[in-house]
Amino acid sequence: MALVWGRITIQSEAFLSSINSINGPNATASGAYVHSSYFLTGENRMFERFGQHGAQFARNAPFSNFFLTPGGNSWGAWEAKSRWSVLDLSDVDRGQYNDITTGLNWYWSDRTRVMFDWIHPFTSSLSTFGASEADILAMRFDFNW
Length: 145
Description:
Distance between the termini: 27 Å
Structural class: mainly beta
């Protein structure tokens, strides 16, 4: 499911998978996520009904590419984002994995962005290493051609 309403995007997916076990009963695994974002600089996501790989979101393009010169400047596009994800492996005795992510995407052009994320994963007591929580700060540079 995806919804684009001006600067706001909400997207979600879910899956349910059947596991045919050789040495035990059959089981299921399931997962889902909900993602939302908001363009602080006014842009919006574009949906391509007939994209290269079928229906898909197009590249995000800033109104003006990032540049700094003595005669002027543009800061590109800024997007605030958040996401919640869950993976449930309780049927195979591996517990539940969750994470919350918030961050910013900085688009220099339609092919270049810098991503800043705070990720907070947490697991249930039945997971492989038991109940745990963590905080991860991540920064990624994405150049796409």
